């Protein structure tokens, strides 16, 4: 921070110390953007039409996005009050953390995981407790349970985990839930749920029946391709979601966003067909990388994790020079989103060279 950036008003020191949320590098015109786990397919005409039909934007949107909540409630077999919609699941994460944790409280999550978690915990004034991923890049749930103290207020489980792609199995999850206090809020972040093909993976609304302290978070950003419109949803008990409603910034889900989400649910078969294409592309790319000699974890999401270690920054630079914008997490590895077929072919050409140069 330069001298002139020093704030002259009294701000919270822990907030000033926070790095701003970093997006991937803006892509040059002809580059492939594989840094934000976005959906590479163009929006569907029916979804565009639904957004365009939403013209009464001189009026505020419905504050609780009731029409969308009703559709989601029907889809997941829950009550519409058990669905809370927000401007992206990251907003819901913030609301839920704020609802449960404040100064002096602890929030546990696995690390490395979604890079927004540390900032959201700091904004709440709470303390992050990071439990290292297992050597196979998955969550170490027994270690996470062992890290719980009487100050723990939230545990975040990310399955599939961003950025490693590893899932938590249903067995691991249930063992965790019965081991932890029933008054402890557990957030299951399933931003990539629709890309999961492993039948052993944890998932979905049926879990809510057994665990009133669980909230499941999902999003329209990834599988449904609405990242720019900002719609996510939380499924959970009414009491917990009511607390999240109280910490929400009011009216942050626009009518256009709700309309797009409702149109996407109507177009689900086609959208899930696209997900199937991306899953096949993911698995084919994983196989090709493995054949090149990469030792990378199997991914159940729409990205792959290249363990480039100390060479991470240099490898990301090489990929960028070839027109592939990826997300480096030095000194651990690089996360590459599954994008266009052409992008994946190009990736394999460059990774074949990079692995030759690795020590
Ligand atoms: N959770 C995870 C694990 C993510 O990777 C992301 C997006 N990168 C989100 C939540 C937030 O997604 P959105 O706010 O777009 O719903």
UniProtKB/TrEMBL annotation:
Coiled-coil spans in chain: none
PTM sites of type N6-(pyridoxal phosphate)lysine: 222
Chemical reaction(s) catalysed: an aromatic L-alpha-amino acid + 2-oxoglutarate = an aromatic oxo-acid + L-glutamate
Cofactor(s) annotated in UniProt: pyridoxal 5'-phosphate
Catalytic EC class: transferase
GO BP annotations, alphabetical order: L-histidine biosynthetic process
The EC number(s) this enzyme carries: 2.6.1.57
Gene3D superfamilies registered for this protein in UniProt: Aspartate Aminotransferase, domain 1, Type I PLP-dependent aspartate aminotransferase-like (Major domain)
Domain called Aminotransferase class I/classII large: residue spans: 31-348
Keyword Transferase assigned: yes
Domain of life: Bacteria
Keywords: Aminotransferase, Pyridoxal phosphate, Transferase
GO terms, molecular function: aromatic-amino-acid transaminase activity; histidinol-phosphate transaminase activity; pyridoxal phosphate binding
Family indicated by similarity: Belongs to the class-II pyridoxal-phosphate-dependent aminotransferase family.
Oligomeric and partner information: Homodimer.
Reported function: Aminotransferase that catalyzes the conversion of aromatic amino acids and 2-oxoglutarate into corresponding aromatic oxo acids and L-glutamate.
Name recorded for this polypeptide: Aromatic amino acid aminotransferase
Species annotation: Cryobacterium psychrophilum
